[in-house]
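Write out a record, focusing on structure:
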Amino acid sequence: MADPVRVLGVIPARYRSTRLPGKALVPVCGRPLIAWVLERATASRRLDRVVVATDDSRIREAVEALGGRAEMTDPAHPSGTDRVAEVAARHGGDVVVNIQGDEALIEPALIDRVADALLEDLTWDMSTAATPFRSAEDFAAPSNVKVVSDQDGAALYFSRAPIPFDRDGRGFDACAPLYRHHVGIYGYRTAFLQQLVRTPPSPLEELEQLEQLRALHIGCRMKVVHASEPAIGLDTPEELPKVEAELRARGFAG
């Protein structure tokens, strides 16, 4: 078992992605996708250790060639969260941050804010992030998950539907301050993470196909922190030019 750490960062990266097989190794601006994610995660000030959790030796070898740390996990895991929990059980620590393996543009400062939410207030079980919606079209799209939170920043509900509902028809611009786009990064207390993966999927989770609803179903207090930018993941070959263009626009690639 590795020496325990206080804050562990885990990047789940499976090979058999449905829409883009071998996604972690897809070249993005001349480097494998996982290289960009690993670089951003290791720039975090709060993570004491970063581990790529994978089910394929090709990904492990690529990460190790980059000087990173990768660990093999059970290929039968149903989700990235289960893969993260397996690695977290080996390392111990107080807080685990799940960093999506397809987000080459994840901000290290956002990783820090997600971790800090749990380090600074022990009453939170989990933390995640959200950013304002930029357009009515993005807000309406079921692929963009919405989150509503209370006055303390605790998540009340996540949905693929446009929530909150604009009953009086005031329009997107008038309601925009209430419309928040969920960013899929998660912090967990280690004990809560293990409880979460032992819990069967909830009815709402199965209906919306949103795993975070399982956490709310069992009474999780989940802090939603601010993200300055929406998530830009790579799920299909068609999205590759957009990701590469954004990397260049932000000065990360030539």
Remarks:
- Residues 15 and 22 are 5 Å apart (CA to CA).
- Residues 7-130+182-208+218-249 form a domain with the Spore Coat Polysaccharide Biosynthesis Protein SpsA; Chain A fold (CATH 3.90.550.10).
- The mean pLDDT is 94.
- The longest strand covers residues 180-189.
